[in-house]
Every structure is written in C-alpha cells, then in structure tokens.
Amino acid sequence: KFGSGRFRLLHLHGQAPIAVAAMVCEAPSAESLEWLAFDPGFDHGSVTKYAPNVQGTFGEQPCDYGKTDVRERNVTGQVGDPQFNQLVAKTQTAMTPLQLCWRAAVVGLALVPIVGLKPLATLAADPSQSWPSRVLFALVMIACLVPLRFLAKQVLMVKQGEICFVQLMEDGTTQILLAGIHLLPCLGSTTKSFPVTADEMRYGTLVLIRVRSGFIGLGTDNGKPVLLLPGMHLYNAPNFEYSGPTSVNDNLIKNGTVNIIRVQPGQVGLATVNGTPIMLESGVHFIDEASFVMERGCFKKVDEALIQLGQMQIVVVPRGKIAPVLVNGEGHFLLEGRHFVSQGRFSYQGLQSLSDEYACAGTRHRILVPSGRIGLGLEAGEPLLLEAGQVHLRNSALFQYKGSVDITQQVISHGSLNIVTVRDGQFGISYKDGVIKLLDPGRHTLDSATHVPGGFISAGQQTLRISEVTGMSSDNVELRFDAAICLRVVDPQKAVVMLTQGKRDRMEELQANVQERAKLALSIIIGNNNLNRKHGATLLVEQPAREEEQQEEGFVEVPEKSKEDEANSFRQYIHDIFMHSFSVSMLNECGIQVIDMSIEDVVIVNTELATAMASAAVANSSLEKSTIEAEIVQVKATAESKVALIEARGKAAAMEITSKADADRIKTVSDALHSACPSAQQMELIRASGCAVSQGSTVMLAQDMSALATLLGGAQGAALGPKLK
Asked: Are residues 207 and 285 both part of a single domain?
C-alpha cells in the first residue's frame, strides 16, 4: 500500500527501543485506482528515528542512563555540619600511626627545651657569673626558644568560611581541614585554602565540586565520561578530571561518548551512528555511543521541503502541492504528507502546485490543461489533443507535452494535425495534396499530413489606399496624386490563385498585389489623357430665363454647372475609365469586385508649370468673380426697378381709388344740400368752415360764387392773396 514500510527495533546505550519505519505519512488524498495504476509508489527504504528518552529537564526525572556514569550529589548538608564531617571522614584517607607518631615526637622534642629555660635564666642573671658565661647562658636560652617558634609557624588557623586542603609529603594523601587551629597535619605537608563558596575546590587527590541548579558538571574518571548532577560532590580520586559546568538548556552537550541533545519543538535533529543517518524527534535525548556524531547544521525545521543527510531524505509536501522525484532513474510523484526515504539514488525535483499545467517525473507526466485552452502532446510522434478541465496522466517514455494554446486561435498547428476556425465574413483556404480547398465558416480539423491551412481571405468590403501614383499626361504634364479603391472578394479561389504566391499572409499579399495593379492602371490611364480636358467643365453656359417668371417677377436666372459638364472633369474622366477597364478585368480574371475609386491630392510635379497654371486659375477666378459681381449688380438694379414700378403702380391705384371716393362723397353731399332747406345748408357751411379753421386754413365767406370772384379779383382780394414776384 502507498505509504507502508518495514519496521525493526534498535537499542543504543541510554536509548530506549525505537521504531524504524520506511515511511510514516498519511494516505494520499488522491489515492484512487487511476492514480495507483499511474504511480504505484516505490520502496522508500529504512529511516531510523529516535524518540526522546528524557522526560522534562535532564537530571530531574529518572532516566535509563545505561552504563553511563551519572552521579548525583553526595554532600547533603553544608560545609562544616555533622553530615559533611562524616562524609569527609569517610572519603579522605586518615594518617597512619607512623605518620602520627613522628609528628607527635617532633612536637615533644620541640617542647623539651622549655624545661631548661628557667635555670638558664637564673644563671644568666647571677652577678657572680662572669660576663662571658652570662652571655653564653643567654644565647642557650634563646636557642631553646627556636623549636617553639618552629611549632608556632606550623600551626594553621582555618578561618570561618574557608576550607583547607592538606597534602602529606609521605604519600601525597590529602585531607580536608575545617575551621579551627591545626598542628599535626600541617607538619611535613603543603596546604591550600579555598572559600567555601567556590564551585571547584581541588588539591591533591581530593576534589569538592558544587554544581549549581540548571547546570551539569562534565568530567572524566580514569578517562571515562562522568556527568555530575546539580549539588555538591566530594571525591577522593586522583584520576578524576573536571571540565566544568554547562547549562542544561544547551541544545547539544557532549562529554566524550556521552551526548545530551535537546531538539526544540518544531525541529528534528540529524546525526549518524556508525555512518548510518538517523533522525532525532523533538525532545531531550540521552545517547552514550562512541560512533554517534551530530552533523553540522544538525537541527532542521520540520516544515522544510527537503531535509537530507546522506541517503536519508525527508520530504514534506504541503497541501495543494506535489513533488516529482527520481528513484533509481524512475520517476514518481510524492503527494501531500511527510515522506521518509532512504535511497542512495534519489533525486528531488522540487515542489509544484497541483494547479500547475504540467508536472513531469521521468516518464510519468501529469497535465492539467487550463480552461479555454487545449493541450498539445505527442505520443510516439503522433499528435494528441488534451481537453481542458481534467487531469491527464501519462506513463510513457515516448510521450512529449508541447504546452497549451488558446482554443480561440484561428489556426492551431500541432505536428500533422491542424485545427482551423473560419469566422463569419471570411473564406478559409487550405491545400489538400496541393489542391486548393475552401473552408466554410466553422471549426475544421485537418488530420491529414498533406492537408495544410493556407490562410484566410476577408469577404467584406475593404478600402485600400494607393499612395504616390505618378504619371505623365498626354499633354506632357507630370502628375502625382493619392487614390483609394473600395473592393470585395467574390471568388476567393480565383483571387488566391491569381494574386497570391503563398510567401506571407494571404490577405496582405492579395491587397499588396491589388494596390500595385491599380497603381499601374492609373498611371496608364493618366498617360493616355489630357489634363486640360478638365477646363471644359469650368465654362458657364447662359440659360434663357423662363418667360412666365420674367413676366411676373422680372428676375434673371443665374446659370449653374450641369451634370454633363461635371462629368467631363479630369478626375471624373479618370474615374470612369478606371472603373470601366480595371474593375471589369479584376472581376473576370481575379474574382475581385472593385466597388468604387477616388482620386485625392493631385499635385503637378513641375514647379514652374504648377505656378503658371495656378496664376491662370487665379486670373480665371478673378474674371469669374467680376462677371458674377456684374451679374449681381444687374440683378439688383432690375429688382430695384421692378420694386419701384410696383410701388408707383400701387400708389396710382390708391390715389385713383381715393379720388373716386372723394368725388362720390362730394356728389352725395351736394345732392343732399341741394335738396335741403336753407337753414340746413347754412349749418353745413358753418360746420365745414369750422373744420377748415381747425386745420389752420383761411375761410372766405361770400354770398355766392360771383361775389366770391369779385372779392378775390378786387383790391381786397389781392391783399389777401399771396404776393407774386
């Protein structure tokens, strides 16, 4: 089963039996019949794992130390108390009787001269003795004091808070002297004092070591490693060597063959035993093995993708990843989990995401084609198409994956297989065994090696610009202009055969050939025509005014250019000839319908000729302007006369109507007054006179007309009338 392995037991000094497994990991999430058939797995070998064998802090909890010399404290009390004195008496070597006897004899002999001091003092003070004798007695008395001085100098006083080590000169035996005065052990020996707070007190064969809490003492006894647990240790061992304390928090403590390794949580330790790689799990390990070696950079994080030591490999595959590997030259995939591998021929290829398009391990291939694309593969040279949206598993040495392409591409070429998508508004071109074949709009699969795509031709209208058309007209005027033609392909097979050679894109090549042919046709047409033909269209032809309008309105119609004259212009003439000859030729020979053509920006190449023609055009324009202005003045004068005539006729008609109305009114009034009584006549006369006076007129009253004539003709009338010059 994928993930299973072999187990065995291994026991080292200080190490509990541990399980050794080929691989310990959860079953892969993609474990299925299809995947197992694709990759059944491989033999992972045996990887040795050490479980921690020390619970808590080293030295605080019981542990199987095996044959390792791990010593607990042997001093339970304080320095100077009965327990300590008993331990010192038990540990140190007591003096032999001979050593005690000769030291006591020395003390006794040193005290004998004290007995003769008094007689010698009496003799030295006796006046009856001669001066030389008295001096001699004094010298002898002083000599008797020398042994006492020697004893006084040998007396050792050990102060409180100190401890003294004494080494006897006979055999090097060492004893401990506590606070107090000491004489016999000090004779014939060397001493050394230490403060009782010192961590290491060593002299001669005795050693008193204090290992503080949180530390471990490291030493050797006769070359064998010794570990001292926290507390005070007193030993009488001449072969004991103390290396010093080390913190129990150190990750690696080594004392000879003894190793104390602390692997932090979230890490693993790497080491070798007899050259075989092993892995230490998180915790504290106590190992006493001469062949145990911790490797450089021995601690690794458990979540590292690859942990390697010798042939041991620890591969961690996170969720959503996959790891291709090579084992003995064969490719495999490691799925999600933690994998322990022990293989000499193992090659790690890195991590890849499960969403990656392609992952390869040797001859095994995993393909996941993204949506909207199509995968391209080759199996023994034969093209394969891989659909999107599913995982494709291939185990073949002859399989090759060429990547994926956008499924919307119009042409997908893969080996001898071609997929052609012809869009609406296009003609698809292909060649089957060298014969042209048209493809209708849609998706076509060309699975024959001799059936190849040939490009696309647009079926819609296209406008092609023809720049820098040059030519010499029949009247020797060199012209240069731009043009544009609008065309449409109606017979794609004829257009491809006649206008393309297959050297580049079909549509571009077709357009380029049409442009060149149109450019050549325009140059030929210009050379066969006269530029001055266009001036015929600039003449104005006077057209007779309509009689009805002249009779009613009297206006003169200004002539305009007729369509026939416009058609005779140079551009229109070239256009007509081009459309008649070129379009028919293109339609019949090449299957292309020329819809329209236009000429733009005509330029005369000869500068002097262009200047002369421009001057003539300016003069012609001035003449036309003067003619138009004269016609405008004439039209304005005619219109004004007509308006004045109409106004005069209107006024005459109005005056006639007014006069006739006044005559009728006067006649009616006269008839009415003639038939009226004299009083009424007088009243009407008075009213008329008042009306005249109110308007500033002079009123002359007479009896009748004869009287009025006499009045106006006499002297009085002359005075009233206006004076004549």
From this structure: no
Angle between helices 570-585 and 506-527 in degrees, nearest 10: 130
443, pLDDT greater than 90:
yes
CATH of residue 568's domain is 3.30.479.30
Bridge partners (DSSP) of residue 314 are 307, 340
228 within 8 A of 219, measured Cβ to Cβ: yes
Given 247, 267, 301, which residue is the final one in a domain?
247
Distance CA 309, CA 315 (A): 12
Average pLDDT, the chain: 81
Q: Contact at 8 Å (CB) between 700 and 708?
A: yes
Going by C-alpha positions, the residue among 154, 185, 153, 157 that lies closest to residue 88 is: 185
Q: Are residues 240 and 276 in the same domain?
A: no
400: tokens are: 């090759």
Q: Are residues 125 and 209 in the same domain?
A: yes
Query: Tokens 């209208």, residue?
Result: 461
CB of 440 within 8 A of CB of 422?
A: yes
Please report, for residues 124, 130, 143, the alpha-carbon distance to residue 117 in angstroms, rounded to integers and kept in the order given: 10, 19, 10
Q: What is the span of the domain harbouring residue 292? A: 1-58+249-318
Q: Is 528 exposed, middle or buried (0-12, 13-18, 19+ CB in 10 A)?
A: exposed
Give the integer Cα–Cα distance in Å for 143 and 116: 11
Do residues 47 and 342 make contact, with C-beta atoms less than 8 angstroms apart?
A: yes
* Any domain includes 168: yes
pTM score, whole prediction:
0.59
Q: Among 182, 210, 190, which Cα is nearest to 84's?
A: 210
Return the bridge partners of 236, or none. 206
Is the separation of the CB atoms in 575 and 599 below 8 Å? yes
How many alpha carbons fall within 13 Å on the CB side of residue 688? 13
Report pLDDT digits (tens) over 266-305.
Answer: 999 999 999 899 999 999 999 999 899 998 888 999 989 9
Across the range 195-199, mean pLDDT stands at 91
d(CA 530, CA 600): 18
Please give the average per-residue pLDDT across 553-579, as a whole number. 60
Query: Are 450 and 495 contained in the same domain?
Result: no
- H helix runs in 10-130, sequence order: 33-38, 82-91, 97-111, 117-125
- The CA distance from 447 to 24, in Å, is 50
> Could you tell me if 489 and 572 lie in one domain?
yes
Segment holding 612, helix H or strand E: helix 607-674
Give all strands (DSSP E) within 302-357, no chain letters: 306-309, 312-317, 321-327, 330-334, 337-342, 346-348, 352-353
CA distances from 138 to 46, 119, 141, 168 (A): 97, 11, 5, 37
Specify the DSSP class assigned to residue 501: -
What proportion of the chain, given as a percentage, has pLDDT over 70? Answer: 84
Averaged pLDDT for residues 701-713: 70
**Among 654, 701, 10, 617, residue whose Cα is nearest residue 287:** 10
Q: Is the pLDDT of residue 234 over 80?
A: yes
Examine the domain organization and report whether 92 and 168 are in the same domain: yes
What's the length of the chain? Answer: 725
Supply φ then ψ for residue 449, to 5 degrees.
Answer: -65, -25
Distance CA 329, CA 11 (A): 34
DSSP-derived letter for residue 77 is: S
Within 10 A of 106 (CB to CB), how many other CB atoms are there? 18
As a whole number of angstroms, the distance between CA 489 and CA 510 comes to 10
- 197 and 102 share one domain: yes
Q: Is 635 left (phi over 0), alpha (psi -120 to 50) or beta?
A: alpha
How crowded is residue 547: how many other Cβ atoms within 10 Å of its Cβ? Answer: 8
- Can you say whether the dihedral through the CA atoms of 126, 130, 133, 134 is positive or negative? positive
Please give the structure tokens belonging to residue 316: 């961690």
Question: Does residue 267 sit in the same domain as residue 241?
Answer: no
